[in-house]
Fold:
Amino acid sequence: MMDKMYKQLPFPYFKIDERFMIISSSLSYENISFYDLLVPHLKYTFSQLIGEREKITLDLDLNNQIRSYIVYIVRTEQKQLHLFCFPNEHQDVQINKIAASMAHEIRNPLTAVKGFLQLVRPQLIESGKETYADVAIREINRANDLISEFLHTGKPIAREKKAVVLNEIAEEIYLLFENKAQLQNVSTQLATIVEEVAVYGNEQQLKQVLLNICNNALEAMDKKKGLISISIGADERNARMVIKDNGAGMSAETVKMLFSLYYSTKTTGTGLGLSISKEIIERHNGHLTINSIEGEGTAVTIELPLLNKISAN
Structure:
């Protein structure tokens, strides 16, 4: 009786077994693997993909249309799952209202800075430093793109996802961040493995997360011999980015509050950066964790599903 009702639902519904085979569906998908509908075709076991979660964000190819869905999971005693899939058009209203009110004011100085960079670029070419201007201009363009997204408060935002190589993102952010750290007499290190560490995601959003965490580490630095390191690695299933600093560190109570909206340890902070970063990583079906010891420093770990199985030696 329930199966018949589920099949008539007006949104995508799937009942799958532990082999990921579709037993029944509200669409014309039965006796095929649920894996075939995933974009990309991630090679996960039943427990690794679903785990103990009650919901997960997945990109599905249904009726030749790729779309992001929030998938709510109901388990049965027969080791089967009911998957209720709702189009992911949710936007955090509070964050978007703040972003919309600030966007125009932020854009004006960005335009001025970009103009001055373009003016001095010929002189930087003569000294062989034009790469710094190019990276800075790209980052200003990226900031403008982010502002454009937030300005579309009432509209679903099309966030393009593709294969993203984390090594390349880390190297670009490191180049941008290294110069800023040097101005504060803080040393930086970048360690990546030889193999490409590729994930499926939105490149601009992942850059935003990494840069935000690096800036947080720099702002927390209170030592003369400060050190911030970025490392990229992977195991059989997950890519991993770790950003460490030997700054002031934080108490366990502070760490618990870090992802709360509007909470900030900085006098000039908005309390939005880490909240947004965590949301971005979770939209990529990843995890963002923070470990910190007062007086010793902080480590931020980001784990994301690998696009392809690679060897991380």
